[in-house]
Amino acid sequence: TGYQRRVRGSTERAMSSTEPLPRSVSFGTAGxxxxxxxxxxxxxNTVAVRMNLASxxxxxxxxxxxxxxxxxxxxxxxxxxxxxxxxxGILRQVFYATSRFGLFEVFRDSLAKxxxxxxxxxxxxxxxxxxxxxxxxxxxxxxxxxxxxxxSLPVDKRRNYGNVLNAGTRIIREEGFSAFxxxxxxxxxRAILVGACQVGTYDQFKSTYRSLGVTGKTSxxxxxxxxxxxxxxxxxxxxxTAKNLSLIHI
Length: 250
What we know:
Layout (H helix, E strand, L loop, with lengths): L1 H16 L5 H35 L8 H12 L1 H4 L3 H26 L7 H32 L13 H12 L9 H27 L5 H32 L2
Helix pairs in contact: 2-3, 2-5, 5-6, 6-7, 6-8, 8-9
């Protein structure tokens, strides 16, 4: 009957709407999301890196608040100083965010063929994708930290990198390609934790909030992202400090 045909058509459309996205779309949207997110948080990351390094170089001095340190940095170097190394940060997201989120979905869906997708499988695939993404993007990470830190050095010790390409080629020419992976383990270890605490728990929180009645696409993603972001920031902060120190002490 006509009613049955309408019901069958609605069912087919519903089934087609739940089909997984092509891998190219998953990787592409992961990279774009990472780039847009990094443009927003890059000034805060610059302040955090400089704040960590300043406290380590003068451990006896009282640590200023984040806002006070940011204002002093903006006054000293200008607002442009807060965006030092932005090109490297964006390039880093092209490799890091794309591979981290993209590989997570690949590994999660592959593992789902053998066992039910639960919190443990999400944490495992998050750790794996995070570690691999860190190894892929480590050269850009070193370049980013170097460029962010360069302006804090005394004038006679600055490397005066022109841009991300200039910084990368100079590191290779002056120190060799191995400099990109010297002291990389804190970065890799942190990325493994980030993969578990941010990517893995984000996917789990989406499912949890959905079961609690937060079913809207925007509200569900927002709540899951905020919760996983807070968790990952608290867990990985010590390794963030260790990563920054290891990548500049070359």
